Amino acid sequence: MRRRPSRIFASLIGFSLFLSILAACGSGTPSTSTTTNSGPILIKIGTDFPTTASDASTGLPAQDGAALAIKQANDNHLVPGYTFQLVSKDDVGASGTHDQTVGKKNVTDLAGDAQVAAIVGPINSSVALAEIPATNSAPIALLSPANTNDCLTKNTPAVECGGKNDQMAALRPSGKVTYFRTATIDQYQGAALATYGYKTKGYKTAYIIDDTEAYGVGLANNFGIYWKKLGGTVIDHVSIKVTNSYENVLTTIAAKKPDVIFFGGNDSTGGITIRQQMKTIAGLGNTPFMGGDGTKTSALSKAIAPLGGGSVFATIPGIDPSKSSAYADFLTAYTKQFGASAIGAYSAGGYDDAQIVLHAIKTVIDAKTATPPANANGDATAFRQAVINAIQKISYTGLTGQHSFDANGDTSNHFISLYTIGDPTQGDGWKFLDQIDTSTLG
Amino acid sequence: MATFVNLLIVGLATGAIYALIALGYTMVYGIIELINFAHGDIFMLGTFVTIAILSALGVQYSHPPTAMSWELVGQLALACVGSFLFCAILGVVIERVAYRPLRSAPRLAPLISAIGVSLVLQDVGKLWFGPTNVSIVPMPIGAISAGPINIDIINIFVLIVALALMAGLHFLVNFTRMGRAMRAVAQDRDAAALMGVNVNLIIALTFFIGAGLAGAGGFIYTLKFPNTYFYLGFQQGLIAFTAAVLGGIGNLAGAMVGGLLIGLIYSFVTLIPNNILPHGGNAWNQAVIFAILILILIFRPSGLFGQHTPEKV
């Protein structure tokens, strides 16, 4: 009798399933016995940064900074009996820039590995919006050196968050704080840029462009609010998604003769192109250009320095790392590991954030609050929660200043550093101008 | 008024580049009814070839030339010819390798092959110049100022070069033996073959000219725009494709007019103020263009020029 092919197929599947169950049981037994072997226990620290394509100049230095911190922790046996390993992820998507979907998948993958104790990243606030809920429900700590959008940690006026000012329920499904950041938020960054432009440089009229992303819109709005508060005029505010030419909008701006053009966004989402094209538009050749930390990159300074033209100003949300006494040692070690040209705006931030995670892990292990799982399939819940609690209580002084975290997960450090383009062959090509403690601003 | 004139020039110059790319789409569609998705990426490689040639000749971004000289004109001419030839030959190779073996296969097969070629070319670009924006050497060409009106000479130059190339193509297709052969192959491949036309050669020539125009477009792009990157071909290609459809795909005059029209729309949308469209008209330019595309497809599926001229190339 001829059997039906589907039945043969089904029995084949059933048999192979049975075999794989057997195999899984078989492999499970020896793995438990290996954990009893002595030897260093592995703890992984995840990173998620945009490390390739257009964002490489922003994200890769941050990842390198974190890698250096982890290497030093292993070299110095920070926590005896444990070794640390970096698991780095890249959130650049098909279009060549940071991508929310990729970022969310990355942190979900990292959270799925029980040995990952915490995650450092991301750079972009828009990516953080997608990653925070995923890491919060795990829960696993997410610590960013660069996210500055106000709306990530607390309810803020709707104008900054694209009309959504009650995102906390969506961002914190567990109701607890699991996301921290060492970057000073845009509220302060925008205020510092407006203060510098209006008071120090004496500009009165500003034209604002943003890149339609969470970070860019928030920063641009904050700048505009504070600019008007100081008495300045905002001629207009336009939103443009990244494109290869801003010639038409710059042509209309030229007719309005602003004292300064402010750009809320990144070097890769318009910063470089806008400033390059300003040089070719009659009337904008010498107009100053201002942006936030997203434009303070080596890619921007290297592209703009040969062109000349109006001044360029940008910020870092924190203390200039070179003001720190430990910076010289960091720079030597960093240069030795990655080369002199690999330094970026967030090298120190990535380093500090990895240090905070490492110190939180050390606190947990020293106090025996929880023990890390021995393998990738173990139960990480208790250990990860202990790490989150330790980060919340930490007080850490690093390259980017003194950090402790408030009830929302924001840093207590409210310094903003200002830069202009300097010698493109030196470091990231930016020259430190001034720092403003924004907690002193009204 | 001054802003209006300035935007008009910007729009025409931008549109001229779209039109040059659109011609490649429409020529290939006209002759083998294939949407050549790799065409935009050939244009992208054209910008890279131009940068590479100029860089080899000593024109580099770190030391941009400060004044126009005959030497610089010569270097630019060399870059233009180099980019045209590189892309033209690339186009012929792509046709031979990726499309000819599939010529009698179902329609979908060469389309997927075209998408594959597009991805390969993007990766070639990424491998060659890296994944980041590549800055283009700015050319020391001034502007004509008449009161508040400032016209960049580059824009005039771009417009003239593009129109000259388009006029040349129009002449080639309509008034030469080769052009007649191309039109014959477009109308009926088998009948043309029976009349003694070498169909393979004519199709290869179409790819040579279409891809060459994309290469020349890439050169012109580098005169006008400040940077390029490996993904540029996708963005620009999509808009140029829209221009080709707007004008009537398969129709040469349609592609030219469609390109210029889209350039103008792109430019003039900027004039719409914040209080009519939130965030300013410029934020909506893609939405406006694709809305027009949808309307055209609904009410005039053959495009603006689709019905007037039955002859296709």
From TrEMBL, chain B:
<feature type="transmembrane region" description="Helical">
    <location>
        <begin position="256"/>
        <end position="277"/>
    </location>
</feature>
<feature type="transmembrane region" description="Helical">
    <location>
        <begin position="6"/>
        <end position="30"/>
    </location>
</feature>
<keyword id="KW-0472">Membrane</keyword>
<dbReference type="InterPro" id="IPR001851">
    <property type="entry name" value="ABC_transp_permease"/>
</dbReference>
<dbReference type="GO" id="GO:0015190">
    <property type="term" value="F:L-leucine transmembrane transporter activity"/>
</dbReference>
<dbReference type="GO" id="GO:0015188">
    <property type="term" value="F:L-isoleucine transmembrane transporter activity"/>
</dbReference>
<comment type="similarity">
    <text>Belongs to the binding-protein-dependent transport system permease family. LivHM subfamily.</text>
</comment>
<feature type="transmembrane region" description="Helical">
    <location>
        <begin position="229"/>
        <end position="249"/>
    </location>
</feature>
<dbReference type="GO" id="GO:0005304">
    <property type="term" value="F:L-valine transmembrane transporter activity"/>
</dbReference>
<dbReference type="GO" id="GO:0015808">
    <property type="term" value="P:L-alanine transport"/>
</dbReference>
<keyword id="KW-1133">Transmembrane helix</keyword>
<dbReference type="Pfam" id="PF02653">
    <property type="entry name" value="BPD_transp_2"/>
</dbReference>
<feature type="transmembrane region" description="Helical">
    <location>
        <begin position="194"/>
        <end position="223"/>
    </location>
</feature>
<dbReference type="GO" id="GO:0042941">
    <property type="term" value="P:D-alanine transmembrane transport"/>
</dbReference>
<keyword id="KW-0997">Cell inner membrane</keyword>
<dbReference type="GO" id="GO:0005886">
    <property type="term" value="C:plasma membrane"/>
</dbReference>
<feature type="transmembrane region" description="Helical">
    <location>
        <begin position="42"/>
        <end position="61"/>
    </location>
</feature>
<keyword id="KW-1003">Cell membrane</keyword>
<keyword id="KW-0812">Transmembrane</keyword>
<dbReference type="InterPro" id="IPR052157">
    <property type="entry name" value="BCAA_transport_permease"/>
</dbReference>
<dbReference type="GO" id="GO:0015192">
    <property type="term" value="F:L-phenylalanine transmembrane transporter activity"/>
</dbReference>
<feature type="transmembrane region" description="Helical">
    <location>
        <begin position="73"/>
        <end position="96"/>
    </location>
</feature>
<keyword id="KW-0029">Amino-acid transport</keyword>
<dbReference type="GO" id="GO:1903806">
    <property type="term" value="P:L-isoleucine import across plasma membrane"/>
</dbReference>
<feature type="transmembrane region" description="Helical">
    <location>
        <begin position="283"/>
        <end position="299"/>
    </location>
</feature>
<feature type="transmembrane region" description="Helical">
    <location>
        <begin position="149"/>
        <end position="173"/>
    </location>
</feature>
<keyword id="KW-0813">Transport</keyword>
<protein>
    <submittedName>
        <fullName>Branched-chain amino acid ABC transporter permease</fullName>
    </submittedName>
</protein>
